[in-house]
Write a structure and sequence with these properties.
263 residues; alpha+beta; N-terminal domain of MutM-like DNA repair proteins; Helicase, Ruva Protein, domain 3; four-stranded antiparallel sheet; 6 helices; 10 strands
């Protein structure tokens, strides 16, 4: 399940493979981007933007991808057998010594690089938690602007704050002892600031060099506090963890009814 930390680490992994390299061949599943237009161009930048990623080329074009739930990027040597079937490949870029393949991304589009800042999906993004200049004050105001939203859904709204996905949502709320169904209007300023501080800490700790993927606790026996631990004992109080689908997209939420009581 790609979240902001996954995209950040994916971009970091792709840079040594692609940056400064000339694209030898490029193809995309159709209907899809006319990625063959970047053949002969060099890769000039690879930037994560929340859950989005933008690859720019020296001929003024940019590839925008969003992996959603099931997308992944793979690297292969030329001629190496792929670990996924070719029909799942959305975009293929080949440079000297490397073939990179984007599988199952629901969003893959080519545009002029000058159009990237104006893209509706990117223009509307809230402050990126993994940015070195993360604007916590702006994220706070954007959350406050959603008073009737349940806090679990508000944290997933990329227009409020970019980078949080379903795993971190449940983990952040547990760490801060906030019930997922609490309306934003019922939370104090200190609670909202605490949620944002924990979100920034967790995402940034998960992209540090050598950090294992998706760890939110050092408790023995589990890398996470509540996510995907339904009916198992809470690591704090031993109450069975509960789970329920939430919001218009029907995503799973996990919480401890003792540590995160309904207000």
């Amino acid at each position: 399940m790609p979240e902001g930390d996954t995209i950040f680490k994916t971009a970091a992994a792709l840079r040594p493979l692609l940056l400064g390299r000339t694209v030898l061949t490029a193809r995309a599943r159709q209907p899809g981007p006319q990625i063959e237009r970047v053949i002969g161009a060099q890769v000039t930048s690879i930037e994560p933007l929340g859950k989005h990623m933008v690859i720019c080329f020296s001929n003024g074009l940019a590839l925008h991808t969003h992996l959603r739930m099931n997308g992944t990027w793979h690297r292969y040597a030329p001629g190496e057998r792929w670990r996924k079937p070719a029909w799942q490949a959305r975009v293929v870029l080949e440079v000297p010594e490397h073939v990179v393949v984007c599988f199952n991304a629901p969003v893959a589009e080519l545009m002029a690089d000058r159009a990237v800042p104006l893209h509706p999906g990117l223009l509307s993004l809230g402050p990126d938690l993994l940015s070195e200049t993360f604007d916590s004050a702006s994220a706070f105001e954007r959350l406050r602007a959603r008073p009737s939203a349940e806090i679990a859904e508000a944290l997933l709204d990329q227009r409020a704050v970019a980078g949080i996905g379903n795993v971190f949502k449940s983990e952040i709320l547990f760490i801060e002892s906030v019930n997922p169904w609490t309306p934003v209007s019922s939370l104090s300023d200190s609670q909202l600031h605490g949620l944002l501080a924990t979100a920034e800490r967790l995402l940034k700790s998960n992209v540090r060099r050598g950090a294992p993927a998706r760890i939110t606790t050092r408790q023995s026996g589990s890398p996470v506090w509540v996510y995907s631990r339904a009916a198992r004992p809470c690591l704090r109080c031993r109450t069975p963890i509960q789970s329920r689908r939430q919001g218009p997209l029907n995503r799973w939420t996990y919480w401890c009814p003792t540590c995160q009581p309904t207000t």
